[in-house]
Amino acid sequence: MEYKNTQERYNLPSEVKFCKKCTISNQRPRIKFDEYGVCSACNFAEFKRSDIDWESREKELVALLDKHRRSDGSYDVIVPCSGGKDASYIAHELKHKYGMNPLTVTWAPHIYTDIGWKNLHNMIRVGDLANILGTPSGQVHRKLSKLFFEILGDPFQPFIYGVTNYPMQISEKFQIPLVMYGENGEVEYGGDLKNAFPQ
Predict the structure, then answer these.
(1) Which stretch of DSSP H or E encloses residue 162?
(2) In this prediction, what percent of the chain has a pLDDT beyond 70?
């Protein structure tokens, strides 16, 4: 299927509207607005503030961690991590608050920014966290970036797929079944809510 433009590709509305509570517009792919003109990100933020019993959720977390906790010093949880705030915080809390031994796993972007590279190394060095960095060959990454740019208009997609799938390969290879991702950008910042609510 061939698309005429980005608006058609992502099924974006022709009239631009903004959320009544924040600055996000309906031009973010997959975002939804309710009948009051409030975006799905704001509605989910309100749900987290008012409807979740955080003490109960922490007990569930501890039970899950206890199920996977290892006493022999080996890694017991994988945290996919670019060095950004969300996964770095999760890895830090798992290690220093909950006594787990996390292995952070990173899929390299096509080109690191100076601050991104510094953040990743600060997470490892200052956060006292182990890390595996997967770096695809330049040729493969260039081909994938070009392909995704031509098809989706988004050369960042190879990184998205890499950061999602490479940690699963490491999980399988090292037999570490517990994998804890950082924030779900689709849910937190407005998008598809299919994974927003506990089953």
Answers:
(1) helix 157-174
(2) 94
Find where tokens 């590709």 sit: 9
pLDDT of residue 42: 94
Length of the chain in terms of residues written: 199
CA within 13 Å, CB half, 146: 6
Beta strands in the chain (DSSP E): 77-80, 102-107, 130-134
How many CB atoms neighbour CB 171 within 10 A? Answer: 19
38-55 pLDDT per residue, tens: 999 999 999 999 999 999
Summarised one tens digit per residue, pLDDT across range 56-104 is 999 999 999 999 999 999 999 999 998 788 889 999 999 999 999 999 9
The three-class DSSP label of residue 173 is helix
Level-2 CATH architecture, domain 54-182: 3-Layer(aba) Sandwich (3.40)
Token pair for residue 115? 């601050």
Residue 130 is encoded by which pair of tokens? 């182990």
Please tell me the number of Cα atoms within 13 Å of 13 on its side-chain side: 12
Q: What does the domain layout of the chain look like in residue ranges? A: 1-51, 54-182
Residue among 62, 63, 28 nearest 42 (CA) = 28
pTM for the whole thing?
0.83
